[in-house]
Write a structure and sequence with these properties.
single chain; alpha/beta; six-stranded mixed β-sheet; 10 helices; about 40% helix; ABC transporter ATP-binding protein; ATP-binding
Length: about 240
């Protein structure tokens, strides 16, 4: 079943066209990755899906519903959640307060949130150790864990992850990618992963797309992409 369908989307910053008829699809239960160089339009793609940018042309269909151009808070209400590049945690709030904010749109009773926060701590034990600590004092890797945990508190059916490895120590990157796989398999959350670390992304994803200067230039299973000479040369250092 197709969870997300992006059809011929064109997105602009003023008069500058960032996305040029981007089309892609994500099926339920998949991890799909979007790889590409700096300035290719990867973050713009996620922001357009998440409602932070309005496409000038094209359609975005989620669970058979047209969500093209609807405000970001309504996209979250449809269970599409973006974990942004740079983490964007609330630095002057504690770890636990950040997690509570993640469930804001759901308006759940407090006792239910307590049990759901416990589930996040089971996924990220380090966050439980630091639950009363201000988020701004965490390491880059811990902040990334918190950002993902906060996103999960919104109970997404589709989790959009923007560069989760950025600014994170290499040893922690491996842990974060293992957790992304766990979220997909155990929580049955569909994941759309934007990542410059193509090797790590292709190691956990089912399928992938390559974006260059606002256009999808390649697509296929991760095995197909790993065998592509273009991908090897440009993104895998082979």
């Amino acid at each position: 079943m197709k969870v997300l369908l992006v059809q011929n989307v064109k997105t602009y910053y003023g008069n500058i066209q960032a996305l040029k008829e981007v089309s892609l699809e994500i099926r339920e239960g998949e991890i799909v990755t979007l790889i590409g160089g700096n300035g290719a339009g990867k973050t713009t793609t996620l922001k357009t899906i998440a409602g932070l940018l309005r496409p000038r042309e094209g359609k975005i269909i989620f669970n058979s519903k047209d969500i093209t151009g609807i405000p970001a808070h309504k996209v979250v209400s449809e269970s599409v959640v973006l974990v942004p590049e740079g983490r964007r945690v609330f630095s002057k709030l504690t770890v636990e307060e950040n997690l509570q904010i993640g469930a804001y749109c759901r308006k759940e009773k407090k006792n239910k949130l307590v049990s759901e926060i416990k589930e996040i701590y089971n996924i990220f034990p380090r966050l439980e150790e630091r639950k009363k600590q201000y988020a701004g004092t965490l390491s880059g890797g811990e902040q990334q864990m918190l950002a993902i945990g906060r996103g999960l508190m919104a109970k997404p059916k589709l989790l959009l992850l923007d560069e989760p490895s950025m600014g994170v120590a290499p040893i922690v990157v491996k842990e974060i990618f293992q957790v992304i796989k766990k979220i997909n398999q155990e929580l049955r959350t569909t994941v759309f992963l934007v990542e410059q670390n193509a090797k790590m992304a292709l190691a956990i994803a089912d399928r992938g797309y390559v974006l260059e200067t606002g256009k999808i230039t390649l697509q296929g299973t991760t095995e197909e992409l790993k065998e592509s000479e273009e991908v090897k040369r440009a993104y895998l250092g082979v």
